[in-house]
Amino acid sequence: MRAALESAERPLSVDELLEAASRRVKGLGVATVYRAVSTLLAEGWIDAVEIRGEATRYERADKGHHHHFQCEKCDRTFDLSGCLDNVRKLAPPRFRVRQHSVTLYGLCAGCAS
Ligand SMILES: [Zn+2]
Ligand SMILES: [Zn+2]
User: Fold this and answer.
1) What is the rounded distance in angstroms from the CA atom of residue 89 to the CA atom of residue 106?
2) Residue 96 to residue 93: CA distance in whole angstroms
3) 110 CA to middle of ligand 2, Å?
4) pTM (2 d.p.)
5) Measured between alpha carbons, how far is 95 from 106 in angstroms, rounded to an integer?
6) 20: which DSSP letter?
7) Shortest-distance ligand to the CA of residue 108
8) Mean pLDDT by 10 residues, the chain (113 residues)
9) Which domains does the chain have, with CATH numbers?
């Protein structure tokens, strides 16, 4: 499971993880994936990626601050590198921003062509 998450270049849902891990290990079941995910979450090795209306995705926790792109056609979630410098400045004066999340929606390169 770690290997599947380590080599994944984007956050994976439980179904996607099962598919990816099944290429390495035969006979894996979805219950095994859920168990592994809950262990890795407890260890802090992975983070949950929550996008409204979507199945939870999981990614390595060591990626650093970044955002996501949700493809509306193939339903895959992609990592975006970097952040918007001005995002904190959207808050009114004297508001304290603690964190933020940004999700872009649209079509990935494969679906757009
Ligand atoms: Zn797509
Ligand atoms: Zn950001």
Assistant:
1) 25
2) 8
3) 25
4) 0.89
5) 31
6) H
7) 1
8) 90 96 91 96 97 95 94 96 88 94 96 95
9) 2-112 (1.10.10.10)
- Which has the closest alpha carbon to 68: 97, 100, 93, 41? 100
How far, in Å, is the centroid of ligand 1 from the Cα of 22?
22
Amino acid at 31: A
| Unique residue bearing structure tokens 């964190």 | 99
DSSP annotation of 48 reads E
Which H or E run includes 33? Answer: helix 30-43
H and E: helices and strands count for the chain: 4, 6
Specify the pLDDT at position 32. Answer: 95
Report the candidate in 19, 41, 8 with the shortest Cα–Cα distance to residue 50.
Answer: 41
CB count in 10 Å sphere of residue 65: 9
The token duo for 83 is 């952040």
Nearest ligand to the C-alpha atom of residue 66? 2
